[in-house]
């Protein structure tokens, strides 16, 4: 398993967003704002769906990577940290209460 995480990508995006590098796609998206970034996210979602339906495994991997990257850019522009999404997902598993209790009991 790779050691690379969505948190790593989020950190890269945060760093590149305001880099001022004219070659940076991230900086370009941030400069163009939420409408353009959300449009790209939608396009990548559709391309991911098409790859899945076609049974294009390699396409699904590639489009999924594009999708997650553009999703993190949209979250970044909207000011929503990845951690907030992970906390929401954790809450849905019903485990967050256990983690909070363990933390309160000094076992966290
Ligand atoms: N993961 C990605 C990533 N995935 C996709 N893309 C870019 O997303 C863009 C969208 O591709 P498309 O073919 O859909 O779009 P396009 O046709 O080029 O653009 P439009 O004509 O639709 O505007 C491409 O330019 C890709 O390079 C990414 N750009 C950056 N990253 C990550 O972000 C880091 C920083 O990148 P820069 O900000 O470019 O330095 C990189 O090191 C990567 O880790």
Automatic annotation (TrEMBL):
Matches recorded under CDD domains: NTP-PPase_HisIE_like (cd11534)
Gene3D superfamilies referenced in this protein's UniProt entry, alphabetically: MazG-like
A matching Pfam family: PRA-PH
GO molecular function annotations of the record: phosphoribosyl-ATP diphosphatase activity
First-listed, main subcellular location of the protein, grouped into a coarse class: cytoplasm
Keywords, comma-separated and alphabetical: Amino-acid biosynthesis, ATP-binding, Cytoplasm, Histidine biosynthesis, Hydrolase, Nucleotide-binding
Catalytic activity: 1-(5-phospho-beta-D-ribosyl)-ATP + H2O = 1-(5-phospho-beta-D-ribosyl)-5'-AMP + diphosphate + H(+)
Intracellular or extracellular location(s): Cytoplasm
HAMAP family registered for this protein in UniProt: HisE
Name of the protein this chain belongs to: Phosphoribosyl-ATP pyrophosphatase
Organism: Mesorhizobium retamae
